[in-house]
Amino acid sequence: MSQGTLFDKVWDVHTVGTLPSGQTQLFIGLHLIHEVTSPQAFAMLRDRGLKVMFPERTVATADHIVPTENQARPFADVLAEEMMQAIEKNCKDNGITFHNIGSGNQGVVHVIAPEQGLTQPGMTIACGDSHTSTHGAFGAIAFGIGTSQVRDILASQTLALSKLKVRKIEVNGKLPKGVYAKDVILHVIRTLGVTGGVGYAYEFAGTTFEQMSMEERMTVCNMAIEGGARCGYVNPDAVTFEYLKGRDFAPKGTDWDKAVSWWQSLSSDANAQYDDVVIFDAAEIAPTVTWGITPGQGIGVNQQVPTTDSMPEGDRVLAEEAYRYMDLAPGQAIAGTKIDVCFIGSCTNGRISDLREAAKVAQGRQVAEGVKAFVVPGSERVKQQAEAEGLDKIFEAAGFEWREAGCSMCLAMNPDKLQGRQISASSSNRNFKGRQGSSSGRTLLMSPAMVAAAAVQGSVSDVRELL
Amino acid sequence: MSQVKSIAGRGIPLTGNDIDTDRIIPARFLRCVTFDGLGAQVFADDRAQTQGQHAFDQPQYQGATLLVVNRNFGCGSSREHAPQAIAKWGIKALIGESFAEIFFGNCVAMGVPCVTAAPADVQRLQSWLTELPQDPIKLDLEALEVYFGHNAAPVFMSEGVRNMFLNGTWDACGQLVAQIEQVRQTANRLPYVSWGQSASM
Ligand code: SF4
């Protein structure tokens, strides 16, 4: 049993009581909703004659279904339009703040809450979306939930949960040039496996994370769920406070000082006890690319697609399936794999720092012949900031399309989709079969800078050679 | 609220590790404001690709109520659409080597038990269902056994979750709402609730 970790402390202060099942009733400080997983929850609430208990603790936006080219209403897709109207109506009827398209505050739910300062250390945060783990970057306990649980929070601001174990993932050292936060988390998942984190919260600690910006920490925590961990977090520190100060919903005046000392008190104690500890050396991490159909099937950009005899027996069936689906042969170098589509965006890597890194690679170069490349800012604010810095011009000059904010081709519930067997280099978080909108489409996950490198070279390339 | 003590019926084997929620219900079917139509769309892409050979299409498994799966079933997104689609197709319980956490929790909230069994037992059950698809099997949550033919295999489920099914308290919503006074007290204890950073500001 863990003791004295941030997870333990935050869990304890949010515990309402113990339920007859033995589960904990946990108070949820911030509830985020979007158009896909909330309409059924509101319907369930209506069916039971319940109302939203703390409407001021839920915040909504629309991201998954929104088109990124033409956002004029009504949407061309009638189903998407119906979902949009449902969330507008549900928020209005229940007094919930809704960051609609064009408000200047819309975007991917996991991008907008941090940038507005809604996400804060020591909070419990839940959202009907598995990448809610992103918010753990601030030292919050944040996790994805299903629709019935969205209903539970709307009705009671609480959830019935069993406590997780805590694993400390320590990475130490300076990341080599061309190696980014995305590579760190892909490396962790590749090493511990996609189920390695089941039953755990991941605490990301060590000098590598301490040196990271908030946006980099968000990228890491975002993908904790891909390693099977329900949530991931980084202890709050000066970097966290610096990022938060002055944001719309951050505490102000004397509240700020009280907040900082409360946040500091929640950090894991030096002698905290963990259920498990795993240590990595940053120097060993290379730009990482997935070759298969789970985020755990990753390799260094200069490595070969692994052969089955190099992997544990339990992984071989899936590897065979991945070779077939991806049309990649074991032993084949991943570098040089031809790419059709390049996608920069998502809640993993659609923030301003991601776009800056990608733009550095794109600047003065041209998207390779036959490659479709596009950049989707994670939010309206990211878009505005990028345009103020001229990043849109750099991308457009290089032949990238510059889009409106949304989830886009991360999951392709909107018009952005792969076609047929197309293969994408993607800065998103999932390479599952069919994830990007074509049931036979293929996805290679990598950092945004690596996606930009793939775009200008037309194939998987080592970004270090372009920096 | 209904108690769930045992589920008897025909079983359907679905082999493969790491079957994710994008495969269970592809994202394009998430463009809906109710769960109603999802049953027909479950495993849509896998089924299209296997052209009638997918277990969910094979005639011998139509009407099955117990789904038998392998490792890390339901990984990926938190979409409740995935277990809803499976349940709307007719499944009432799942037996597997392991389940992804959010998927498991969603199933509990819907009153659909997911139990785990040793890999060898899961595989034995899957082969048995392949050979004798018409023979009913029974998952007994009280005895924590799955019975097939003259065989039995132990299954596992945490005590707390099992009690929710046995006592009919798997739907937490009512219990949570009943504690509203304690919820308010907890909220008042949390410094950030009064910092004015809430959305209404
Ligand atoms: S960007 Fe992708 S992972 Fe993130 S919320 Fe949208 S669909 Fe989900």
Number of strands of chain B: 8
Number of domains as seen in the coordinates of chain B: 1
Number of strands of chain A: 19
Helix proportion of chain B: 25-40%
- The CATH topology of chain B turns out to be Aconitase, domain 4
Question: Which fold name fills CATH's third level, the topology of the largest domain in chain A?
Answer: Aconitase, domain 3
Most extensive chain contact? A-B, 91 and 68 residues
Mean pLDDT of chain B: 93
CATH top level label of chain B = Alpha Beta
C-alpha end-to-end distance of chain B: 39 Å
Q: Which residues of chain A form runs of ≥5 with pLDDT under 50?
A: none
* Cross-sheet strand order for the largest sheet of chain B: 1-6-7-8
Question: In what range is the share of β-strand residues of chain A?
Answer: 15-25%
**Largest sheet descriptor of chain B:** 4 strands, antiparallel
Structural class of chain B: alpha/beta
Strand content of chain B: 5-15%
Give the helix proportion of chain A (percent range).
25-40%
Assembly state: heterodimer
* Count of the separate structural domains of chain A: 3
